[in-house]
Amino acid sequence: MLNENIRAIRKSRGLSQEELAIKLNVVRQTVSKWERGLSVPDSDMLVSLSDTLDVPVATLLGEAVSEPEVDGLRALAERLEVVNLQLARRRQLKRKALCGVLVATCAAIALAFACAAALGSPYLQWDLGDPELAVAGTLYHGFEWVFVRVAPALFPAAAAAALFVRKRTR
């Protein structure tokens, strides 16, 4: 909600991300992150943003503007806390998904190694005079050749990355 409001109000004022960033003394990427919902401005920056865009902070946060509240800063802080918690949860879910993908990659590599070891190289006994078997044997051998060279490096890298991501998730 905050990100959509920043973008809509900035565009309604005819400002580019770069122009707004210059007025706020931040880099354009910061404004872009706010508008994409990847981060939120802190309370001081939110006040500066409302001054620059000439709108109340409550409008930026999506609240209907009525009478000024006595505990406006407290309400603003609580609202920002909720947004920060939502961003933290989203980041944690992405990390868990990445960890799952890395663990699945390790499992797939281990399974492929087990299958390759169990099967051996059956194409060596095939009648390669048959064109279809020759093509299949070439493809099987090509896969086996690439897999045996790539998997030993990919497996420990994926395992280490999964451990690193899991450690950071906790």
TrEMBL record:
<keyword id="KW-0812">Transmembrane</keyword>
<keyword id="KW-0472">Membrane</keyword>
<dbReference type="InterPro" id="IPR010982">
    <property type="entry name" value="Lambda_DNA-bd_dom_sf"/>
</dbReference>
<feature type="transmembrane region" description="Helical">
    <location>
        <begin position="97"/>
        <end position="126"/>
    </location>
</feature>
<dbReference type="GO" id="GO:0003677">
    <property type="term" value="F:DNA binding"/>
</dbReference>
<keyword id="KW-0238">DNA-binding</keyword>
<feature type="domain" description="HTH cro/C1-type">
    <location>
        <begin position="6"/>
        <end position="60"/>
    </location>
</feature>
<dbReference type="InterPro" id="IPR001387">
    <property type="entry name" value="Cro/C1-type_HTH"/>
</dbReference>
<protein>
    <submittedName>
        <fullName>HTH-type transcriptional regulator ImmR</fullName>
    </submittedName>
</protein>
<feature type="transmembrane region" description="Helical">
    <location>
        <begin position="146"/>
        <end position="165"/>
    </location>
</feature>
<dbReference type="Pfam" id="PF01381">
    <property type="entry name" value="HTH_3"/>
</dbReference>
<keyword id="KW-1133">Transmembrane helix</keyword>
